[in-house]
Amino acid sequence: MVDYIKWSEEYMENAEIIKSNIDKIQERIKNAPPEKKSTFYELLGKYRTIYYESLKTAEFLRNRSVESGTRCRIM
């Protein structure tokens, strides 16, 4: 049996790591020379996409646990 809750929690943990990286990139943008900022903004966009996809996947898995009859814990 698939443990959707555990799987969902793993996605949430990864999302938190990604969020930490987003915060670090935003700090680097503040101090970056103008010619480097576009590179950081591009990287920031990619990290944000991954972050939001991780959150959506975690939510999907949590909802799936309810549908499958697994007891859902609040995150």
Q: Could you walk me through the main structural features you see in this protein, from its secondary elements to its overall organization?
A:
This protein is mainly alpha-helical. The chain contains 2 helices and no strands. The protein has helices at 4-31, 34-67. It is rod-shaped. The model has no long low-confidence stretch (mean pLDDT 91).
List keywords for this structure.
75 residues; mainly alpha
- DSSP helix count? 2
**Strand percent estimate:** under 5%
Query: Mean of the pLDDT scores?
Result: 91
Number of E-type strands: 0
User: What is the C-alpha radius of gyration, as a whole number of Å?
Assistant: 16 Å
Give the overall silhouette: rod-shaped
Task: For the record, give the distance between the C-alpha atoms at the N and C termini, rounded to a whole number.
Answer: 21 Å
Question: How would you sum up this structure in a few lines?
Answer:
The protein is an all-alpha fold. The protein has helices at residues 4-31, 34-67.
